[in-house]
Write a structure and sequence with these properties.
single chain; Jelly Rolls; seven-stranded antiparallel sheet; 3 helices; 11 strands; globular
Amino acid sequence: MKTFQQPKYEIIQPISFRADVEYLLDIANKLKKKDYTHKDGTKVSNYKFAHYHDEGIEAFLETMPFLEKCKYRTSFVWLTKNSELPWHTDKNNKCAIIWSLAGGWTNATTYFRKASQVGGNRADHDRKWVYQDAIIDTQIEHKVKIRNEDKIMFKVSIIDKDFQWLVKQWETHYKGFKISRD
């Protein structure tokens, strides 16, 4: 009988690949924010976004050549302080690379359910993560709690490749993962 090794990464992989936060925040502060509508049709009042792409962002994305092998889109995301983004899976993407631009890495906690869990299961099976920058499996049900200040993020949403593909590309291109100590 053939046995298979468990995936090396699951749900989230922190990265230590910093974006130009000052440049991205400057852009974010000039953009018109759009209200987010959940895939079930309900408006999510504490979540705003704006799709955006320019030459500076393109130059940054060129440092990640594996992006040429997939479909992706870039956006900015704003989450309101003292709020919770309810349990969900992201629409129209399978995974994402997320950089925190403002709100501090300890200001938000992301909770993930195991892939087999769907709504209403025991909370002690949820996994809790606090991160600065990370690759995230957006098809695993998750929620986000924001504490005392708004959180602003830059997000590269991967539309047609899954989480395992993305972390493997990242690991190969950057020779593994390093832990950020900042």
